[in-house]
Amino acid sequence: MAGDYYEILGVSRSADKEEIKRAYRRLARKYHPDVNKEPGAEERFKEINRAYEVLSEPETRARFDRFGEAGVSGAGAPGFQDFGDSFADIFESFFQGFQGGVGGQQQQGRRRSGPVRGDDLRLDLRLDFREAVFGGEKELRIKHLETCETCTGTGAKPGTRPQTCSTCTGSGQVRRATRTPFGSFTQVSVCPTCNGTGQVIEDKCETCGGRGQKEVMKKLKITIPAGVDNGTRLRVSNEGDAGKLGGPPGDLYVFLAVNEDPLFKREGTNVSSEVKISYLQAILGCRLEVETVDGPTELLIPSGTQANTVLTLEKKGVPRLGNPVSRGDHLITVSIDIPTKVTAEERELLMQLAKLKGDRTGKGGLEGFLGNLFQK
Fold this sequence. Notes:
9 helices; 29% strand; four-stranded mixed sheet; three-stranded antiparallel sheet; alpha+beta; disordered C terminus
């Protein structure tokens, strides 16, 4: 589920926590499946809950502001819930942890007791036109979280270990029974002492401050395949943030943008450009050296070529992504340069040619045209 979470809740990016909470409660009441039976209401309700989960926590909100959806889309992202599990989950999320029903039925709480996959990261990379055509290696610098080597990710000072939280006895949740006109409900909330982990660290690791992870600037080389284009997304496995509690790292997603080229334009796997020739070259034909993405190449201009004719250099275009042996073509549009003035000798020769062809040469015809060119 992706989107602009600020837009989903209808708040600005500068909104504070209370404003976000008010917007969430207002929308949740409106779209809760028990209240709104319109088609799409339940999906909208899930989006609202997901948006609130991300923006209500400073850590996940900061990652979303920095990396967008990729920063919070990891399966182990803090606060992520699978809203498809059951209606009870949706009900619990809406009522901020109220669960059960008449008679005080309760559901066993969950906590993050097992390995948690690290978050995915996003990096935007700009390429030159020919880099996108032929690919190659690029060196990147990224900041990501790595498992703390001092405490091996536990967050505890070497020689010590995390202890079971005495507030929630390791469940990660605290519960409070509440009676309402509709029956007895149990309010479930994240344990404020351990923040839902079920464990507390009494002696924190001095290297990572108890987080179990540290931010590191890393250099890595990636291979850009031939034929990438604007919007191509490359996945670099295991180069996202490190996982928690022994979980696997996330991935790095590199989104590509390609600079425009002064000579070439791209249309799929084809490359296009223009070449200007003189009117005599158009009449008589010629061979020209033209620039392609592979370098200079000879182009045959057939005699009698008309303006805006498109000539094709086969297999001089862009390699097909995933199959570099297959390439597009280079399409060259011909324009003809008509001179604005001619010399006396050129004028004389053109007049002779006009007589041979039997063209009009009066004041309104070719002679008048050539006379104007000569005067200019």
